[in-house]
Amino acid sequence: MVIDSRSFPTTTRGYRNLLDWAGTFGTITQAGVECTGSYGAALSRFLRAHGVTVTEVNQPDKAARRLRGKTDTIDAEAAACAVLSGRATATAKQGDGPAEALRLFRTAKTSAVKARTQAISQLRAALVTAHPDLCESLTGLSLPKLIRACLQLQLPDTPVDRAPAAAVFTVRLLAQHVRQLADETAEPAAHHHNAQATHSRTPQHLRSGTRHRRGSAHRDG
Length: 221
Description:
By secondary structure, the protein is mainly α. The chain contains eight helices and five strands.
């Protein structure tokens, strides 16, 4: 049976208030939390740090949601029922070990790689419309040689607001950006490799999001 239900903000104080509130009904030894690898990760870590066993609860299936509706209160009650009935038995994701480190390093690397690819495309596009002399001097170079050549370019004597000078300024700036992003790509990659050496499993791609957590206190019988 449901004893009470209440909403708490997704902050450390909110989690503490949730635990204090739940404790007024008795000793809390186990809790069911949805998506412990994403928006439920912070709550899951907080509960474990306070001696509560956290069980991963799957989101209600679509048929059940159509019958009962979709609210945080209903989801919280469903999570509590899943734990009490024994239907939910999966151990919650830790979210603070090597797997989480791998996920974060991979996120940083992916972001840097995408930005570098975009900068390279912008550099090549700028060269296509540049003055023929500039374009021809850089045509046929491999990417590393192209970047080095662009970095060594000197601004012409013409005003910077004229196309030739603007083209040199732009390709040199983009080349600097590409080189910087290459360093940013290498740094998380090195950490990623070190983390993989100590953890053989590849982390799952997890959804992200925020919401208020809702607690539901249940009692058997």
